[in-house]
Amino acid sequence: MSFVSLALLLWQAVAPQAAPNARADLPVRMAFRVSPDTVLIGQPFSLFIKVLAPKGVRFEFPTGPDTATQNGIRPIELRGERVVSMLGDTAVALYNLVAWDIGTQPLRIPDVRVTFEGLERRPPLGGASVFVKSVLPADTSLRIPKPARPSIVLPVINWWLWLMMLAAAIAAVLLWWVWRRWRNRPKPPVDPYVHAQHEFARIEAQHLLEDGRYTEYFAAMVDVTREYLVARVPGVRRSDTTSELLRTMKPHDGVEAVLPRLLEESDLVKFARAETRLDDARRGGTDLRAIVDHVEARVNPASQVGKRIATAKARAA
């Protein structure tokens, strides 16, 4: 053995042994698998990466494929998020991908980065690819991809128009409500004497006496008189019989004294179908109108008819 060989052996025995992880040559082994290796457009597939390295190293897996587009198409796209885990000295990563163009498509995954104490290794993933089959017939396989669609532009809503329509609808509802309240407003009370005079005039306008309808004329005039007495004389009710009405009213002397006879004749006309002659019907109508005037003057002396009757009595006296 030469002197040089002996010196080398002695140096190796004395010098400290370097740790395997601190060697300039950082041993890294990597394998990957694409499953399935043949897919259709839009069909998901997975890329499984397994890296074996010495203890203490740091693994950095890329976040996903390159997102740059080609001819307006993004060939490979990450679906979800990558999954990374450690099994001892082995790091594994799983990518769920999807392809959007036909033919052999490289996955375009950046290299894995493995570092330890200033040393770095980049196992390449440039060979990972997937084949995307076309669903078109053979004679149309040479297709031109459609250009990318423009961004979705949301329509601008003219809120002022809708607000004006809403205001118009509210105004219409309010106007309808006001009109309905006005139409259904309570009617002002009508003075019983004025109402009786209107009804007497309406009956006279029907010309019942000229048409020979004497009984109908007389019965209608009595009904108007009874309605007036119910409204004006306290205690008189619509359901009162003739005797009850007379007992409550207690007719005074004068023109009111003929009221019992007229009511009794009216009962005979209504319930016994008695006939009335022209002179009796005309005279009965005149007496009934006079009774209404007399009662109005008695219970309401301040009225016009009360003043008129009072003046007539004063002149007669």
Brief overview:
The chain is α+β, with helices and mostly antiparallel strands and 317 residues long. The protein has helices at residues 3-14, 159-183, 192-205, 214-232, 242-249, 259-271, 278-299, 304-316; strands at 29-35, 38-40, 44-52, 58-60, 76-78, 83-87, 90-99, 103-106, 113-116, 119-121, 129-133.
Can you walk through the features of this model?
The protein has 317 residues and is of the alpha+beta class. It contains 8 helices and 11 strands. It has helices spanning 3-14, 159-183, 192-205, 214-232, 242-249, 259-271, 278-299, 304-316, and strands spanning 29-35, 38-40, 44-52, 58-60, 76-78, 83-87, 90-99, 103-106, 113-116, 119-121, 129-133. The strands form 3 sheets. Strands 1, 3, 5, 6 and 7 form a 5-stranded antiparallel sheet that branches. α3 (192-205) packs antiparallel against α4, α3 (192-205) packs antiparallel against α7 (278-299) and α4 runs parallel beside α7. The protein is rod-shaped and about 150 Å long. The model is unreliable at 1-24 (pLDDT under 50).
The run of helices and strands is HEEEEEEEEEEEHHHHHHH
What is the share of helical residues? 25-40%
**Amino- and carboxy-terminal Cα gap:** 182 Å
Number of helices: 8
Please describe the biggest sheet, giving its number of strands, its sense, and whether it closes into a barrel: 5 strands, antiparallel
Radius of gyration based on Cα positions: 59 Å
Count of strand segments:
11
Shape: rod-shaped
Strand coverage percent: 15-25%
Structure classification:
alpha+beta
